[in-house]
Specification:
heterodimer; A: 304 residues; mainly alpha; ABC transporter involved in vitamin B12 uptake, BtuC; two-stranded antiparallel sheet; 12 helices; 4% strand; B: 241 residues; alpha/beta; Rossmann fold; 10 strands
């Protein structure tokens, strides 16, 4: 029972990260058919924003020293600004380009961000102790669960509820859903394309920042690669969920997190290092079964 | 008062010329029917006004401003409402959300609420199903929804691409009754694409015939249909059919 509970929390907290990242990608894909591969580098950038630029091996903690009630808004703002800036400076120029061109542009932007960080901070991972008290375990039904896992899951649920409320209850949310389904028609009804897209980027950037904060608290390290691995899985999740479908992205994010943790447990010990081969094998199987993803968004169906 | 002036616009898709040197003017409160065979450039003309396609040459003035090169949302906000071909309802949004999308640019929220009630009174079916996803509606019901949605913006000019398509004759009558009433009470200007001239003859107004991307005939709808000029122009002068 306790082991089962531990597995459940492992799966949910890993799935939470993937789900948050997948929504960030799906939101942008929804409004402008862009698969933003720079998203993972937004995550890294937000994490490095905790530090003062230096190529020394030790970390000079900068924003990371702020109390949480200041630190969290600051890092969220960094994520939102970086994301909005990339729309204004880069993606806006490709608005009418074909999706492949936009995707390549996002790859390139990702590299620009990554190598800028490399220049400022060097490639060595640095350790940082952000909120160490969160690593302490709490007891839930005799199982010792790291507090951070509980917090990650709770935060993800709160973010999901807030996002649904925004999309369903506000004018901007309505416009964003309409724009995701049929952008041209939405514009003909007076929906301001630039505002909606910029807002989507802002939300996406804040999601990336939240992931960055969770990751750095979890691992205690700051590393240039830390965004990319999440991004890869999140991208797969958005495809499995049905590109552009937000519920699909969430479900698929949790699904991949769950399967990864489950494989870690049930695979024979000798095979465990090769777990990812089995996870991605399952991904291929799902895509053969449902090439358009588990939840195909209406926009993909209805295009005439 | 002149509301819309299109002066010698040319639109091409790649090497294909969809509209050549087309000019027209529309006064406020006027009704203009555009007719013509498939591929004549009717829809392209509407898209050019809406800002969805950008003319290669020529100018478009709407409500006193040169709108060539404007974004579709800015043209919509000046009071141009467009119902494009192919019923673009937002299928994942509810019927009421679809209708409310049209009012985003209005400041007169109370009047917008009254307009919503009015649309519901004309199309009671929409009110009955207001909280259902618009994607479940039949083709004809979707057509009612997009026309209602376009009217919710309280436009100065509404352009509708084939309003009769897929609607039962009784519903077509209702749609036209609403449009004509708004024309007479609010000075709404109507720009309507119809394949057939029957409705234009019934309603009256000006008519314009497009063929091969060019305006080949223009005049009073009833007079044009009474003479053989329309039929001749529709199929091409001097050709044998």
């Amino acid at each position: 029972m306790t082991a089962l509970l531990q597995i459940l929390f492992d799966a949910l907290s890993l799935g939470s990260l993937y789900a948050l990242a997948a929504i960030g990608i799906a939101l942008i894909f929804g409004v402008m058919r862009l698969v933003n591969f720079a998203h993972g580098d937004y995550i890294s950038f937000c994490v490095f924003a905790l530090l003062w630029p230096s190529i020394e091996a030790t970390a000079f903690v900068f924003a990371g020293q702020l109390p949480p009630y200041l630190l969290i808004p600051v890092i969220l703002t960094v994520g939102a600004c970086l994301s909005m800036l990339s729309e204004i400076l880069v993606f806006r120029r490709f608005r009418n380009a074909n999706p492949a061109t936009m995707m390549i542009a996002s790859f390139a932007l990702g590299f620009v961000i990554k190598y800028t960080l490399l220049m400022l901070f060097s490639s060595r991972p640095k350790s940082i102790d952000l909120w160490p008290s969160l690593s302490l375990p709490v007891e839930i039904f005799d199982a010792r669960i790291p507090l951070l896992q509980v917090i990650t899951i709770v935060i993800t649920i709160v973010i999901l509820i807030a996002l649904v409320a925004f999309l369903k209850r506000t004018r901007f949310g309505l416009e964003m859903r309409a724009a995701a389904e049929n952008f041209t028609m939405a514009r003909m009804l007076g929906v301001r394309a630039n505002a909606v897209i910029l807002l989507a980027f802002a939300i996406s950037g804040m999601l990336a920042a939240s992931i960055g904060l969770i990751l750095v608290t979890q691992t205690g390290t700051v590393d240039i690669q830390m965004g990319s691995s999440v991004m890869l899985v999140a991208f797969i999740a958005t495809v499995i969920g049905g590109l552009g479908s937000l519920p699909g992205a969430v479900v698929a994010g949790f699904l991949i997190g769950g399967v990864s943790v489950l494989m870690q447990v049930i695979l024979p010990f000798d095979i465990r290092p090769f777990r990812d081969a089995f996870v991605y094998g399952a991904v291929i199987a799902v895509l053969i079964w449902r090439p358009n993803g588990l939840f195909m968004p209406r926009s993909a169906k209805q295009r005439v | 008062m002149t509301l819309l002036t299109i002066d010698a616009i040319t639109v091409n898709y790649g090497r294909l010329i969809a509209l050549r040197n087309a000019s027209l003017t529309l006064s406020q409160g006027e009704t203009l029917f555009i007719t013509g065979p498939n591929g004549a450039g009717k829809s392209t003309l509407l898209k050019a006004i809406a800002g969805v396609v950008v003319p290669k040459a020529g100018t478009i003035r709407f409500a006193g401003l040169e709108i060539g090169g404007w974004a579709p949302e800015d043209i919509a906000r000046r009071g141009f409402s467009m119902v494009p071909e192919g019923r673009h309802v937002f299928g994942s949004l509810t019927i009421e959300e679809n209708l409310r999308l049209g009012v985003g640019m209005r400041v007169d929220k109370d009047a917008a609420e009254r307009d919503l009630e009015h649309i519901y009174s004309v199309f009671p079916m929409l009110e009955e199903r207001r909280h259902q996803a618009a994607g479940v509606l039949s083709g004809g019901q979707q057509q009612m929804l997009v026309i209602g949605r376009a009217l919710m913006a309280n436009p100065q000019l509404i352009a509708i691409d084939e309003p009769s398509l897929g609607l039962a004759p009784k519903v077509i009558d209702d749609v036209y009754a609403v449009l004509l009433k708004l024309r007479d009470t609010r000075g709404l200007t109507l720009l309507i694409v119809e394949q057939s001239s029957a409705r234009a003859t019934m309603t009256g107004g000006r008519m314009l015939l497009l063929r091969g991307g060019e305006i080949v005939l223009e005049g009073d709808a009833r007079e044009l249909t009474r003479s053989d000029a329309l039929k001749a122009a529709y199929f091409g002068y001097g050709e044998q059919h």
